[in-house]
Write a structure and sequence with these properties.
CATH topology: TIM Barrel
Distance between the termini: 29 Å
Keywords: Carbohydrate metabolism, Chitin degradation, Glycosidase, Hydrolase, Polysaccharide degradation, Signal
CATH superfamily: Glycosidases
Strand content: 15-25%
Mean pLDDT: 94
Catalytic activity: Random endo-hydrolysis of N-acetyl-beta-D-glucosaminide (1->4)-beta-linkages in chitin and chitodextrins
InterPro entries: Chitinase_II/V-like_cat, Chitinase_insertion_sf, GH, Glyco_hydro18_cat, Glyco_hydro_18_chit_AS, Glycosyl_Hydrlase_18, TAT_signal
CATH architecture: Alpha-Beta Barrel
EC number: 3.2.1.14
Shape: globular
Strand order of the largest sheet: 1-2-3-4-5-6-7-14
Pfam family, one: Glyco_hydro_18
Order of helices and strands: HEHEHHEHHEHEHHEHEEEEHEEEHEH
Low-confidence stretches: 1-5, 21-33
Structural class: alpha/beta
Length: about 425
Amino acid sequence: MNGFTRRLIAVTAAATAATAVVATAPVPAQAHSSSYVKVGYFTQWGIYGRDFQLAKVQKSGAAARLTHLNYAFGPVTADGVCASADPWADWQTPFSDANSVDGAGDVAGQPIAGNLNQLAELKKKNPKLRVLISLGGWSGSAYFSDAALTDASRKKLVSSCVDLWVKGNLTGLPDGVGAGIFDGIDLDWEWPGSSGNDGNVIRPEDKQNFTLLAAEFRAELDKLGKANRRHYDLTAFLPAAPAKIDAGFEVAKIFKYLDFGTLQGYDYHGTWEAKTNQQSALRVPAGAPDNPDFSVENTVNAWLAGGAPKRKLVLGLPYYGQGWTGVTGSGNGLFQPAAGPAPGVFAAGTEDFKTLKQLPAQGYTVHRDLRNGHAWLFDGKTFWTYDDPAVLLQKTLYIRSRGLGGAMMWSLDGDDDKATLTKTVSLGLI
């Protein structure tokens, strides 16, 4: 057994042990002394079908282990301004005692309710936690290109975003009622210069205009920060595919304006393909059918090769898996033909970690590729590629060894009620 293998076995053993203890570990009053960034996405719509409120982020211990919470998403409209995708969820819906961060339910006549009020309560409980509004996302990026096209349109967009989300001038409420909730802006333009969701406006000049848009956001946030004597963060979600990096980003320039960028560390493969595969491996596994292929290491190397500073690269980690069913062929299910997406609770082909972790008790076998850093579940018919605590701990070791800035997690509602994944990431990035 060589030294590399021994080290990975030790990592897996440590992760297994960690999983057993994180659920009962005491929640620190503030766990933000680490220099590593730990970003968790909270989805606006998660309060509905998923019944996942910010109170659960607090009660599970996840909030105490994050440095940043990104609230997803605020769309860019066809008029080139920022808006709420769902004002009811954002600042109108009342929460009961049980679903409130501070344990006291909302009452009629209070200045603000909804998720934003819960974010304010979360920050009171966790004073060092920074909360960012994420703009765009997969279904909210259609008009970024138009809004970034000219100096005037960029100024219009940035002014509206800062006014709505950072200054807190929420539509239909008293001016400034939401001030102080958001500590900055996260740009989730998916994707400048290349295809994303159907119907997105795309231009070749998006590449330069993304830089100019980031510069405008930075200038406006710095101007407000100077007046308020504070710093506002500016971050961005960045793609894995080299073609998308080349088409959309002046890598050596954009980090002048960004506090950090979060890298897409997942969705490398999925049920849009006819064969099972990994969705988030550290390295390309032996026998992979695609060459070149996606992996965490290839993603990180692509950004570094373009001139990105290591400490401003934050690795994205999935709290969900991609799954196929009707798998045929031999072996452990990897790289085998499949009939289609596996059934999922909320969508076919995807499933939360909190559900996948129960499958070994239902006849699934956990398989690991220690050298290449990925795991999967297979029962002879259905295959799920996912990250469990052992894989996440291995990835935190990778983050440390490469000198990266930290980890980002999509999304917090995929974790279990004990925040096992978030606690594992925090343990690995102490």
